[in-house]
């Protein structure tokens, strides 16, 4: 899953792909580099970020989705949003997956949209909201707390008619997690495979890698690849990354090791 942030303030590439032209060219490059899914987001979810209006998010994402879908109809497109109206417009414009970092908790209509259009849905765990999630994240038991969250969210989603086999689980690396929590999540990822649903991870260039290696976001490739490799070996089936070309090669070798 290749990341396309059509935002001025994302932590790693904010502002780089803010015009339709630059965002499309970047998407095209990610597809050529081997991305199976293009994940498009119009609202930053970096720690401390502020929400934006519905109109602004639609303006940033929908023309791009339409253009990618027209030119690369076989490419899977994911819309990274917490707003049901954005999700619906994205689906109607060619998006195939809804990626909701709030796990269906910020917009009561999101579950209805996902059910109505019968699209795969990423349910992510996040403690708090992006504005406040990194102030002082705390858990009674990190893994069990997230598993309980997934159990409740799966029950909620299926009650509204979402088929269980349409759900993808994301434990939310970097979203309301301490430095140590992120390493523990990757190490114990197998526990989330108990739900027998695909597990997605998004460690790409995140701050826990930066802290460990004392590197800025653009210099965190090796750390990201290490996290991706460990995640795949522990059960991740979708990896959300900025650096598709390099990650694709790592994933291929790790998969060959995993199934040997």
Structural account:
The structure is a single chain. The chain has nine helices and eight strands. With 260 residues, the protein is of the alpha/beta class. It has one domain (2-259): TIM Barrel (Alpha-Beta Barrel). The chain has a six-stranded parallel sheet with strand order 1-2-3-4-5-6, covered by helices on one side. Strands 7-8 form a two-stranded parallel sheet. Helix 3 (84-92) links the parallel strand 3 and strand 4. Helix 1 crosses helix 2 (54-71), helix 2 (54-71) packs parallel to helix 3 (84-92) and helix 8 packs parallel to helix 9 (244-259). The mean pLDDT is 93.
Taking strands numbered 1, 2, ... along the chain, how are they ordered across the largest sheet?
1-2-3-4-5-6
CATH superfamily: Dihydropteroate synthase-like
The low-pLDDT segments are none
Mean pLDDT: 93
Give the helices and strands as they follow along the chain: EHEHEHEHEHEHEHHEH
Shape: globular
Whole-number total of structural domains: 1
End-to-end separation: 24 Å
Please outline what is shown here.
The protein is an alpha/beta fold and 260 residues long. It has helices spanning 20-32, 54-71, 84-92, 110-117, 142-159, 179-187, 207-213, 221-233, 244-259, and strands at residues 2-5, 37-41, 76-80, 97-100, 121-124, 167-170, 200-201, 238-239. The strands form 2 sheets. A 6-stranded parallel sheet has the order 1-2-3-4-5-6, with helices on one face. Strands 7-8 form a two-stranded parallel ribbon.
Write the layout of secondary structure elements.
Elements: E1 2-5, H1 20-32, E2 37-41, H2 54-71, E3 76-80, H3 84-92, E4 97-100, H4 110-117, E5 121-124, H5 142-159, E6 167-170, H6 179-187, E7 200-201, H7 207-213, H8 221-233, E8 238-239, H9 244-259
Parallel strand pairs: 1-2, 2-3, 3-4, 4-5, 5-6, 7-8
Helix pairs in contact: 1-2, 2-3, 3-4, 8-9
